[in-house]
Amino acid sequence: MSFSTPTWIFGDEQTLNLTRMYIQKHQDFVAPLIVKYAEEWTSLGKPIFRPLWWISPNKPVSFTIDDAFLIGDEVLIVPITEKGKVSRDIYLPGDDYKWMDLNTAQVFDGGTLLKNYSISLNEIAVFRKTL
Which of 110, 127, 109, 30 is nearest to 62 (CA)? Predict the structure, then answer.
């Protein structure tokens, strides 16, 4: 999402509603995680936003992914970065992890590559580590 262009410039209600929805999700879900991991950063020096190789340092594939990231070790964000795409490959790091898709509630094993994983135009793929 670009904040350099106001959403009302686009002139359609769908774009404005999506922007409102994601601002609310940021306030309700992301901001508390940032606060939590900022405290961890100050005490332990671990970054808030982490690359996938942070929890899968022995998996070469985790070093090749530069358009997905972790918030702490518990949330994986995998955006669609190509115009017109509605699916993408998603690598779930951490062989000993289980990841739940917060949009569908499906649970997957860490260390798995999800091929052509479907993501609607109104969603961002967000996975949360489950216990």
Answer: 110
